Amino acid sequence: MFLHREKFNKSWTGSRYNQPAVSNALSRLRELFGDDLFIRTSKGMIPTPVANQIIKDVSSALSLIQNTISETEKFDPSTAEMTFKISIGDSSEYRLLPLLIKELAEIAPKIKVETYLTPRKDAPRELASGTIDFSIDPPVHSDPHLKHEKIYQEDYVMIVRKDHPILHLKEITIEDYLKLSHIHISNRKTGLGHVDMALYRLGLSRDITLRAQHFLVAPYIVEQSDLAITTTKGFAVDRDLAWRELPFEIEPLVLHLYWHEAKDSDPSSKWMKDLMLKTYGKLQKVI
To answer: Considering only 171-175, 200-204, 206-210, 275-279, which range has the smallest mean pLDDT?
Structure first.
């Protein structure tokens, strides 16, 4: 618990542990592990790689103990009071959460949900430490301690407003597609996305007029302009938008639900996992 607080000077102020006790404990830990454990920076005290590994190992052990205790207790979602933390991108968030929250309101009214966008490289560590309970990502993680299950697959299409001139064409060719001005959604400043990588392999590139951070703004822009967005078909559901098949090959979007193996013996985590799988199954049916 001590190591889990990066900014421990402020975190422990006013707690039952006084500052000298915290400093003495840190000194003993530094001597024991032969490492500084925390380094002072302009953003405060941050853990070293050794400290991060200790946090991961200790958190996993504590999770196993907690799960063993939890397994002996009967989990009742109708009365349970807890918060599940989920790492999820905004394009998935705006589709999953309305259905998930509706389900929870009906069968588990005291259960809360918090969502975050965890960098993919950090997801294994945060799942191991319990910082997040689940992560929804493409199948990119190879950590042997992570469990995962495919929950969603959807094809990419071209989406435009319903009265866009390109819709008058009987067939949209790659040349027609490349003449359009496009929206690209990414929280990175540079780099090719999934669509642009597919075009790059064909020796092609498209004109990106807008590079934005979040999907939430995109439908309003597409509805009021000639810009096109290439994303999954579900983006157009319940919106004043039209979609067409792409004139080139591209792998579909595949999402997996990830959790740490330590959660397997926790009945509440297994219940939430099953509920999320059920909810994504409903989403798949409306596409």
So the answer is: 275-279
